Amino acid sequence: SDPVRLAQYEAPNWLVEDVHLTFRLHPTATRVTSRIRFRPNPDSADRGFRLDGEDLKLLSASIDGRAVEPRIDAEGLSVDAPNDAFIWECEVEIDPKANTRLEGLYMSKGMYCTQCEAEGFRRITFYPDRPDVMAPFTVRIESDQPVMLSNGNPTASGDGWAEWHDPWPKPAYLFALVAGELRATSTTHRTSEGRDATLNVWVRPGDEDRTGYALDALKRSMEWDERVYGRAYDLEVFNLVAVDDFNMGAMENKGLNIFNSKYVLASPETATDRDYELIEGIVAHEYFHNWTGNRITCRDWFQLCLKEGLTVFRDKQFSGDVRGHAVKRIDDVLMLRARQFREDAGPLAHPVRPEEYVEINNFYTATVYEKGAEVIGMLRTLAGPEAYDRALTLYFDRHDGDAATIEDFFACFQEVTGNALTGFERWWSQAGTPRVTAVTHWSGDVLTLTLRQSTPATPGQPQKGPVWIPLATGVLSPDGKEVAPTQVLTLKTSEATFRLEGGIWRPSDGPAADPLPASVEPAPILSLNRGFSAPVILDRKVTDAERLILLAHDTDPFNRWEAGRQVAKEQLLRALDGGALDPAWFDALGRLVSDDSLEPAFRALALGLPSEDDIAQSLHDAGRTPDPARIHAIREDVLQGLAEAQAPLFRALVDALVTHGPYSPDAEAAGRRALRLRALDMLSRLDGGDAAAEVFATADNMTESLSALAILIRRGTGEAESGTFFTRWYDDPNTLDKWFSTVIGNAAPDEAVAVARRLTALPEFDPKTPNRFRSAVGALSANTAAFHHASGEGYRFLADWLIVLDPINPQTAARMTTAFETWRRYDGDRQGMMTDQLRRILATGPSRDVTEIATRLLGD
Ligand code: HT7
Ligand code: ZN
């Protein structure tokens, strides 16, 4: 297919005044009638009339009551339209039961539900399915299902029917309908503007006792958005529905959020601390879309980061407020580096605002979401928190009801800052992670810092320009005292120098600094990019001794953790080269991890080593070829060394951090469990897994059961526990998913593919359910040493299943094909095996979704 291009945007010819839809639900033959009032768009001179539509059986069509015979093609229809406003009516038939793509109207365990973002509505009826066509919707549902929901407020209902009206103009991608046997857990919320809203969390019968946390998270999100952004809810009801078959996490349909049940249902016995955290964050994210996405939507899909980056930034602020900013930031940066930096470094790299796409579903990426959120964060850092608040208020006031662009959003910042940010724009047009080198010079009383930036070439963008890089910077004395507090130094050009005099940094136009001469000692220690204020890769010569001082004393918790991380990375790289580990590192880690004045969650993070994938990327960045088997083995050796060096500490932590009393998912309790379970992992390297087996046998919560199971499987001793877990949770889809992912994801590199083949042959494995597919097949591609096994069986296993999945569910298949994105890092044999599998997939004539990803991955 031809790509869609940002540069070719044209306003719609026709706008929609209002829409009436009637659904006569039937599993295999649902009838949808539409009555749509069109009016000419004054911003377009073209009066051609075309509607999008896919896989629809058109039964009748009329314009102003007169039957018409449209020209139908694979992507929609066209018909000669009047010159002025008119009413389009049509009836179509669709087959929800056959819809395994899970886009449009489909069935999940006997329940009807919809997914319309990005282009699913065109699989429900003919419509101008583009985000800049917004209209109020009135919906009538006729069915024998006891609960029938759509967007907006309920207006009337009777036996076998229900009507809904959504007064807020919305694009079709926010349309939703759900019908089924559902049970609600409800509460009310009085908004800051004095309106009452009923909040319902709808689930299948039997799941009602797992809804409390999501409902509470929703209420807290509503209060937070009122308090922090001054944004209140605007309908009489807010419905949230959990479904088991879902392509992504959740969907922000106006007044009717639909969620993957994995991100709603929680009880201590079935959900981990991480599940609770994700539920809270995703509930908040979808709710926050009510303003950033729904009230103000996107003009076109190229502007996706306008709603996604901004909403991710908002949900991160919320989670930071609830759970603590330092730990949240470290978690977020771990994820950013693991997913977005990796994407930016590979063949799928694209700007936060892409310039073209073949299949828009392929652009719901870490770059659009996570780097998009970083871009908003940098705007806030540069403008300052007050100006940020004013810019957002201006944006909400000015664009409420609009389908907006990034330029519209940025203009609000320019207005409140007096155009102070001109030059920042490259952040959304340029792909690739900027690299910053930093060189210091210490004269004895003046510290000079020279920063240089460059961004590597990415597909379609061989040349890069400088971006604005706000680096929050502090300075410590060699004995660990802070001598200059955090100040933001913004690098706007390829190179700039700053001088620290009297505790204040100033731009310097003097000559660029030379590297620190070894004779001038002791120099102050720089703490650069505090809080990870800019999403860049820092390249700087720092000695282990300096890092250990930062690890022990930095006042910025993020950089404290980062110092430990960098030391760990260097130690691992040294070990890979056959070098000895520095005992000072184990001692420093031991001191940090046993420091009771620090939050347990922070200490748990400090104990985490870079992943095998991180190490592979670091080697590749250094111009070397990673060997996944060796990385796995050496990393395990290092962990063994650490366990032996700090055995008493780990034993003590496992004993001391037992939680007493009833389980609570709050951040404090979760942090204690996280530290205890890290220590348990260490201990298992010394006691053969006895303590972990004990934890598994006695745990009263899923966090501990599942971690203990993972530890035992890693030690190769968890067979009995695995069987116990399977038998206990056999009937619970979300919990059985955890079994699939834990058993496959922790299997030894030489065995994992055989294990994965065995588990995917079980009757419980169903590729039609995305959660199950991701849990099993995705776990193998996330098991780095197994996926990259020299036999190539990991690659073959993934490709085999992608070929099965693609005709069933192309969106999920395409997303999972991205596991091959690192192929260029590896040796010739592995490169050949990975590209062979991609070509094998392409030879099957796959969907547009998979074709686009596989072709971009190959780069030919
Ligand atoms: N806005 C949504 C993104 C989305 C999606 C969700 C579920 C299934 C398919 C989807 N395609 C796109 C989710 C969000 O970012 O909030
Ligand atoms: Zn979103």
TrEMBL record:
Domain Peptidase M1 alanyl aminopeptidase Ig-like fold stretches: 432-540
UniProt domain Peptidase M1 membrane alanine aminopeptidase: residue ranges: 213-426
Protein name: Aminopeptidase N
UniProt GO BP: proteolysis
Coiled coil: none
Gene Ontology molecular function: alanyl aminopeptidase activity; metallopeptidase activity; zinc ion binding
Required cofactor(s): Zn(2+)
Every Aminopeptidase N-like N-terminal domain range: 77-174
Residue ranges annotated for the Peptidase M1 alanyl aminopeptidase C-terminal domain, each copy included: 544-858
Taxonomic source organism: Silicimonas algicola
Reaction catalyzed: Release of an N-terminal amino acid, Xaa-|-Yaa- from a peptide, amide or arylamide. Xaa is preferably Ala, but may be most amino acids including Pro (slow action). When a terminal hydrophobic residue is followed by a prolyl residue, the two may be released as an intact Xaa-Pro dipeptide
NCBIfam families: pepN_proteo (TIGR02414)
This enzyme's EC code(s): 3.4.11.2
Keyword line: Aminopeptidase, Hydrolase, Metal-binding, Metalloprotease, Protease, Zinc
Family annotation (CDD domains): M1_APN
Domain of life of the native organism: Bacteria
Matching Pfam families: DUF3458, DUF3458_C, Peptidase_M1, Peptidase_M1_N
